[in-house]
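Postdoc handover notes: sequence design on the structure in folder B. Input tokens:
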């Protein structure tokens, strides 16, 4: 019985083999070119376009069937710029049948050569891959209980050998007429199995600029393995830049479990400028490297960050959280020395000339812009930023020990604080800036201590002599839709002082002819014989309420003159209303000058953009008439030159500084000159303009003695 059964099975198996052989022979002998009209009609029905296969259909039947096509053309849209959308010189596909039984796709060979693809849009934005056909895809009714397509696992896919040569993909924008070209010179990939790494080697050109990509990726099977990190190691050489990416992703499908080292180096900015179609104002080599990892979904952190541009280097870390409505950035950056001189100069060279404003002459005279402030950019990102730079070199200044601690939150920016050392002095700035529905809120605290103007200006390239120790204390708040509106409703105070100062007279001449002459009269009557003016102190404090800045103290003390001021500045309309009362000092009488002219009160008027300084004739006539009586200016000048010597040198700086510090107006007191004579000294009396007038009316001769110290 066993022998007949063996014979039966053998005969049955032989019949099956003969049937398979017969099928292969019959199919192999079939002329598949008869299918070309069928294929073309099916494509036309689906797309409304013609598909032309210019060569014989070469189909090899077996356990690894292969298909070879040549000279394939696919018609372009009727409105297209050329007849064919696709031209393929050679197409070859070879697959394995056995893996298909398990739901896997294994491609032994995929070859695409000499192809040309055109993707374009018309003037309305319609693309040529959008087909005009009335045939609609039929929607199949899903049976109850069947698994949806969204949850079905995709089949495993592997390509043992992929080769693409001499291909061109062109994109043309119908609205702008611009085209972009991608040329694939050679692309080869290989994978020995679904569990093996994928290798890639790609070279080509983008808009005639060469590029190259090579490296390895994880296996196809590993893409769906959430427990094992999926490795990758890629290098890119393109457009004057080199980049590398190495590490792993634990869950590539969800972009989670990222741990990648990256580096980018740019040596040729000209190629990138060509690619970007704009001039990039950089010349020096640039590099950036670090590690990027994810803390949670859409939350990334870059550590070990190193950024270099030429000799400049920045280190630190950067976190980016994209899970919220707006990105949140957490940055901490530091640098030993940052020289931006070359970068900023190159940037200025590429700037376009400012357009001439169409505003009228009256608006052009305003210092504060009434253009609406747009701080919407503050709403685009939230975060906190810590930056520290030991030395920051700018084109016109050097900043040391610069540190910034700032936050951005829902349209507000807080700098608390911004600190730096400049010119031997310390500068601290606190700023709160918030974008509100009714405008912008601004609060600022600025403190400057011991700033040496000479050092700062020398680094800025100022050759003419300007020296002095500069201090400032500013506390202001305002709100408005423009800078002019903020200044018009400003509140707070500003204090600015300078001591041990020297200013070249050249800068007074830059203020305008009439204005400079008035300043010279006030500060240095001997300016024609000297190139500079020595300033013992300059003290100002303005207390500001609703845009009105009242001069609590305004004093300038030079070697020749002392000037005390009073009045206010209207920040709403930017008008000046200040009275300046000068007093002469020792040595002035030795010059051939008009004493009456030197002691006449001045008025500082006009606007902030265009100030004017003139003799206050109304106040001067009253003062001079009371002080000098019927002898007039010439008689007084004659008496003064005969009877007087050195003038009164009153310490105006100390009480002025005290007034600036406290915000309380104080009078200047005359020093007791009797101490040197051994006589009993009396309490010093306040020396004011009114007091000088009163003394002059009673005794003009005594008034001159008090004025000139004799």
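Designed sequence:
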């Amino acid at each position: 019985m066993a022998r007949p059964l063996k014979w039966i099975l053998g005969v049955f198996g032989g019949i099956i083999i003969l049937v398979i052989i017969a099928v292969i022979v019959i199919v192999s002998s079939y002329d598949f070119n008869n299918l070309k009209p069928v294929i073309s009609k099916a494509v036309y029905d689906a797309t409304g376009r013609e598909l032309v296969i210019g060569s014989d259909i070469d189909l090899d039947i077996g356990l690894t069937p292969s298909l070879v096509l040549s000279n394939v053309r696919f018609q372009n849209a009727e409105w297209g710029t050329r007849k064919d959308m696709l031209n393929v010189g050679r197409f070859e596909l070879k697959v394995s049948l056995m893996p298909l039984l398990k739901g896997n796709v294994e491609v032994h060979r995929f070859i695409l050569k000499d192809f040309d693809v055109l993707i374009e849009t018309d003037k309305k934005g319609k693309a040529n891959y959008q087909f005009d056909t009335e045939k609609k895809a039929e929607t199949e009714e899903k049976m109850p209980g069947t698994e949806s397509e969204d949850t079905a696992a995709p089949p495993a896919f592997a390509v043992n050998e992929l080769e693409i040569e001499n291909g061109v993909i062109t994109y043309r924008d119908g609205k702008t007429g611009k085209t972009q070209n991608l040329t694939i010179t050679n692309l080869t990939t290989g994978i020995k199995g679904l569990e093996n790494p994928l290798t890639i080697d790609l070279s080509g050109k983008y808009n005639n600029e060469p590029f190259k990509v090579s490296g390895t990726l994880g296996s196809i099977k590993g893409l769906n393995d959430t427990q094992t990190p999926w490795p990758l190691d890629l290098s890119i050489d393109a457009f004057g830049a080199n980049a590398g990416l190495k590490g792993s992703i634990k869950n590539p499908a969800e972009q989670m479990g990222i741990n990648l080292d990256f580096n980018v180096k740019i040596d040729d900015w000209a190629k990138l400028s060509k690619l970007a179609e704009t001039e990039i104002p950089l010349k020096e080599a640039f590099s950036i490297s670090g590690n990027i990892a994810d803390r949670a979904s859409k939350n990334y952190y870059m550590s070990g960050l190193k950024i270099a541009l030429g000799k400049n280097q920045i280190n630190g870390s950067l976190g980016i959280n994209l899970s919220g409505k707006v990105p949140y950035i957490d940055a901490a950056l530091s640098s030993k020395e940052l020289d931006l001189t070359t970068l900023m100069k190159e940037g200025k060279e590429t700037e376009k000339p400012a357009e001439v404003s169409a505003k009228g002459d009256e608006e052009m005279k305003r210092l504060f812009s009434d253009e609406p402030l747009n701080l919407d950019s503050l709403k685009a990102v939230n975060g906190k930023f810590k930056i520290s730079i030991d030395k920051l070199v700018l084109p016109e200044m050097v900043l040391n020990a610069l540190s910034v601690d700032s936050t951005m939150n829902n349209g507000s920016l807080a700098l608390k604080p911004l600190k730096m050392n400049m010119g031997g002095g310390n500068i601290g700035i606190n700023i709160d800036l918030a974008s509100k529905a009714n405008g912008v809120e601004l609060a600022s605290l600025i403190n400057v201590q011991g700033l040496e103007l000479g050092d700062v200006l020398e680094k800025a390239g100022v050759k003419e002599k300007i020296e002095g120790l500069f201090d400032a204390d500013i506390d202001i708040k305002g709100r408005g839709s423009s800078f002019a509106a903020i200044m018009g409703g400003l509140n707070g105070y500003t204090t600015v002082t300078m001591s041990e100062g020297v200013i070249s007279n050249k800068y007074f001449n830059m203020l305008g002819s009439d204005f400079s002459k008035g300043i010279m009269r006030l500060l240095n009557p001997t300016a024609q014989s000297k190139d500079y003016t020595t300033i013992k102190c300059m003290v100002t404090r303005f207390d500001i309420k609703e845009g009105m800045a009242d001069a609590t103290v305004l004093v300038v003390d030079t070697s020749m003159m002392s000037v005390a001021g009073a009045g206010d500045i209207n920040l709403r309309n930017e008008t000046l209303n200040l009275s300046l009362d000068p007093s002469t000092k020792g040595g002035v009488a030795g010059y051939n000058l008009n004493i009456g002219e030197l002691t006449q009160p001045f008025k500082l008027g006009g606007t902030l953009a265009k100030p004017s300084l003139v003799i206050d004739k109304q106040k001067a006539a009253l003062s001079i008439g009371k002080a000098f009586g019927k002898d007039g200016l010439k008689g007084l000048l004659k008496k003064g030159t005969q009877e007087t010597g050195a003038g009164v040198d009153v310490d105006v700086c100390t009480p002025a500084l005290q007034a600036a510090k406290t915000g309380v107006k104080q009078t200047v007191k005359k020093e007791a000159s009797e101490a040197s004579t051994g006589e009993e000294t009396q309490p010093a009396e306040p020396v004011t303009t009114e007091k000088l007038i009163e003394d002059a009316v009673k005794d003009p001769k005594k008034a001159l003695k008090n004025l000139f110290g004799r």
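Context for whoever picks this up: DSSP finds 15 helices and 30 strands in the chain. Don't rerun without checking with the PI first.
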